[in-house]
Amino acid sequence: MPNLGIEVLFEGSNFQRLLGGLLVTIEISFLSIIIGTLLGIVMGLLRTFDSKALRLVLRLYLEAFRIIPILVWLYVAHFSFSPLLQIDISGEATAILVFSLWGAAEIGDIVRGALESMPKHQVESGQALGLSSGQLYRYILIPQAVRRMLPGSINLATRMVKTTSLVVLIGVIEVVKIGQQIIELGVIKAPNSSFWVYGFIFILYFLVCYPLSKLSKRFEHKWGN
Question: 107, 122, 195, 207: which sits with the fewest CB atoms below 10 Å from its CB?
Fold first, then answer.
C-alpha cells in the first residue's frame, strides 16, 4: 500500500503541536481584535469632530494601513523599530501591536461611517429634547451605530485571523510554521505529507473563521434595513 502521508499528522506530538500553533494564531488574532476595536471606537468618534486637522491626521493614519501591506508593517516594526529603539520585543508582541493598529484604523473608519450615516433629524430631535452631546452619543447615535458597525467589524475580524499567517515571516511559531516544520522533517519518509498537513491547517482556519462569517451574515440579514 502506498504511503499516503496522512499518518504524519498523528506521529509523535504532531497533532498536539498543530493545535498549539492554532492557539497562538487565535491569541494574536483576538487580542489584536479587542485592542483594535477599543482604539478604533475612540478614533471613529474623533473623526466625527469638527477639527479638520484631527480628521486629516486620522485619515492619513487610515490610508497608511490601507496602502502599505501588512507584511511591510510587520517587517518595519520587528526589524527596524525594535533595534532602533533598543527595545527587545518578541515576534508575537510585534504582531499584536501591528494588527491592533491596523484594526484600529479600519474599525475607526467603520465607526465614523456608521455615525455619519445617522439621519440628521434624530440628532435634531435629541437636541430639541435638551440632550447634551454626550447624551446624544450615548442614547441615540451609538446604540444605532453599533448595528451598522457589526457586520463590517466581523468581516474585518475574519480578515485579521486569516492575515495572521504572515507572522511566520517574523519568526512567530504559529500553526503554519509548525506545519512547515512537520513537512520538512517527514519529507523523505512521507513526500505527500504536505497535502494532509496544509489540508488540516485549512480545516483549522475554516473552523475559526466560518462561525464569524455566519455571524456577520446573520447580522446583515437581521439589521440590513
Answer: 207
